Known about the structure:
The structure is a single chain. This protein is α/β, with parallel strands linked by helices. It has one domain: P-loop containing nucleotide triphosphate hydrolases (Rossmann fold), CATH 3.40.50.300. Helix content is 37%, strand content 16%. The chain has helices at 4-7, 12-27, 46-59, 76-79, 88-94, 119-124, 128-138, 155-162, 176-184, 224-231; strands spanning 33-39, 64-68, 100-101, 107-110, 141-145, 163-170, 191-198. A seven-stranded mixed β-sheet has the order 3-4-2-5-1-6-7. Helix 2 (12-27) crosses helix 3. Magnesium ion is lined by residues 46-47, 70, 75, 145. Magnesium ion binds next to helix 3. It comes from candidate division WOR-3 bacterium.
Amino acid sequence: SKLILHKNPLSPEAEAFKKLKFNIDILTKEFPKIIAVTSIIENEGKSTIVANLAIAYSLAGYKTLIIDGDLRKPSLHKIFETPNEHGFTELVTKNILKPYPSRFQNLFILPAGEDSLNVLKILDAFDLRKIRELLTENFDVVILDTPPVLPVAEVNTLADFAGHLLLVVRADYTPKKLLFEFETSIPENIRLIGFVLNFYKRAESHYRYYKYYHHETEKENNSLSNLLKKLKIVKED
Ligand SMILES: Nc1ncnc2c1ncn2[C@@H]1O[C@H](COP(=O)(O)OP(=O)(O)OP(=O)(O)O)[C@@H](O)[C@H]1O
Ligand SMILES: [Mg+2]
């Protein structure tokens, strides 16, 4: 099971997700909030982190919604074993918000939806403000899974919609050059709140959240690039 917080709530991995939630709350004080989670390339652990972070919020008593915004390769309906008949696609194209309950209290799942494949057409219909309103009227926390930044075009739209962006970096895997390119090309309207280092092998755990990086105030000395260079954990190209 990928649901660490459920399977083994007292493990170091579960603790790491509670800490991650805590740090996000320090950096994004307001509720309701929408957070998009992305990574540079595939398979860095986005969906796993979305799932467990959302469980952490729901355990803390917040009414939480997971949205599967990875319309090309949806996976959250599989992780949470819900249907995928209607979801994000219907929300964007028809303003219908009908999430599925999960087996966790306070936690709801909005999968990609069955007809999710025509991504660009779907996102064309995106009335950001209206949908944001609908979501924040109904939920305290919304966590949005997205496709990787490369090779896909829609991440900026999704991150702009969310307002907050969390970047997953997979140790020894994320290509350094692409990561640095991404960091220096983030549009002004998107707030990168920090990154989660995944697959970092230290002591007994793989799920170590390592260091939080605050993009706005520490840009100069503590940029993501500098930090990762120091840690020497990103893949050399
Ligand atoms: N810290 C970890 N330790 C071990 N396995 C992990 C860890 N994080 C994720 N995985 C596993 O790695 C695989 C990829 O994870 P996941 O599907 O969450 O990544 P993703 O970034 O959402 O991928 P995609 O780009 O395909 O959507 C999954 O099999 C998941 O169970
Ligand atoms: Mg995924």
